[in-house]
From TrEMBL:
Species lineage: Bacteria, Bacillati, Actinomycetota, Actinomycetes, Kitasatosporales
UniProt-recorded name of the protein: Aromatic amino acid aminotransferase
Positions of the Aminotransferase class I/classII large domain: 33-345
Residues bearing PTM N6-(pyridoxal phosphate)lysine: 223
One function term, GO molecular function aspect: pyridoxal phosphate binding
Gene3D superfamilies listed in its UniProt record: Aspartate Aminotransferase, domain 1, Type I PLP-dependent aspartate aminotransferase-like (Major domain)
Amino acid sequence: MSETSPKLRAELDGIPTYKPGRPAASGGPVAYKLSSNENPYPPLPGVMDRAIAAAGSFNRYPDLACTGLLTELAGRFGVPAAHLATGTGSVGVAQQLIQATAGPGDEVVYAWRSFEAYPIITRISGATPVEVPLTGEDVHDLDAMADAVTERTRLIFVCNPNNPTGTAVRRAELERFLDRVPGDVLVVLDEAYREFVRDPEVPDGVELYRDRPNVAVLRTFSKAYGLAGLRIGFAIAHEPVAAALRKTAVPFGVSQIAQEAAIASLRAEDELMGRVGSLVTERARVRQGLVGQGWTVPETEANFVWLRLGARTQDFAAVCEAAGVVVRPFAGEGVRVTIGEHEANDLFLRTAEAFRKEL
Ligand SMILES: Cc1ncc(COP(=O)(O)O)c(C=O)c1O
């Protein structure tokens, strides 16, 4: 056996591997997974039927161009099909956007803390991450982000609402920010949680993209639509950004099962948005419950809440897990807790209350 090993790109050194939310332990009394911002509802029967029918031909490659789905999405959003590009989850599309814009020597700006894939996919491309701290209220500091733009900046992520804090930026401040960013820098509005937004002042990125060629919007079927396991997300962007996404796509990366389930989900939108409405109601109940217990919880427009626990983060996560709810700790910072089924939220609230009383 040779003593040497293959030469790997130096950029990979020190890149953390993406950490998925911990699964709920099996075999225990009760265990709820509130660690990955998933949709707690099972697939709708109609969506399931269409996915199963598609499974009958998985000996064939899928439709590379996702023709049926793009037609459906174009109608749904009132955009040309040429402005749409799909990928293996919106994280896959985000990675393609970086590949298309940034390499060694280039900079990618995003808020921190935000979606933990941003530093990983930036560094995989060899580009330099520029992390701009959130404000004291855990909101994007858009003025500081605009100030961070240099002639090396190629892409800026604005995660709205932000993962893991749930906070969202509003129309006037986002428009002011977009007006400040040079037209040759791509601004990606990552709206993975858009369907959970209830504040009318939080803009729909699709409206902002229309007359701004340097704005792309990322959406996913993983959260509100409940298709996380099928891996399908998409971008809405002007040419040539959408064309660049088609070039950087892994061929046949989106399965036919995912495409068909996405089409069926768009057609079942009323029912799915009813579920989203129930989760939003639960969100308000959980947040108010926590505030009533004395916690400080930022206003959230997503399907999760954020508790800034600092040094007590890991303890809190361990107590929750022992009680049967798996939350998402960010060591030294806080925990993100997904809004789940009513019983899961109740159990979490009881656990948080007991922890608070011991403080
Ligand atoms: C802000 C944000 N963007 C993108 C994603 C990726 O979702 P997916 O790849 O499942 O579409 C997530 C998932 O947690 C997220 O929180």
